[in-house]
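Let's practice the habit of predicting before peeking. Look at the sequence and jot down your guess about where helices and strands might fall. Then scroll down.
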Amino acid sequence: MPALKPTAFSARISWLGVVTSEDRKALLAEPRQALDLTFEGIAGSVHGGRTRASCSRVTSQHPKGTPIANERQLSIISVEEMAEIVAKMGLDSLDPARLGASIVIEGIPDLSHLPPSSRLQAPSGATLVVDMQNRPCILPARSLDTVHPGQGKLFKPAAEGRRGVTAWVQREGRIALGDELRLHVPDQRAWAHLETARRG
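Done guessing? Here is the structure:
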């Protein structure tokens, strides 16, 4: 019996982009029509590579700067959650290029809360493994301020629980605008002790 189950949910890719090292400070991704995913992630991406230096998100496990496996090769956000962020910020729209996104998809509800280890699989066979929810940070706020002066500070609270997920490449292949990504989820119940662990 497979431990990962295909679901009835799929998502259409509506935007693709790459944040290069030159773009990192401004956090302005370059839009793309297609991406060739490898075990390193996306060629030219500042988030690419099999390993990365540990950051503030994992200081409970590793001293900052420790080489660890790179589970944050891609950032995936949803059209639906972006619409919620836009509404909370009181804006008309948001450019995903200024959010540091790699992929914007439409069709999976509550994307930011997908079970870790879920898979998104493209027609090419390219497969992404969801690591966990991507927490809002200050970099998009700075980028957004350049086009929405004074509004960037609203991003972090508006994006709480809506920032999407990070993922890494399990199987290489090409993804393109308009592709349908099929959602597969782990075939297991939620851990019964999660709330107790969070309080600890």
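How did you do? The helical segments are 79-89, 138-145, 155-159, 194-199.
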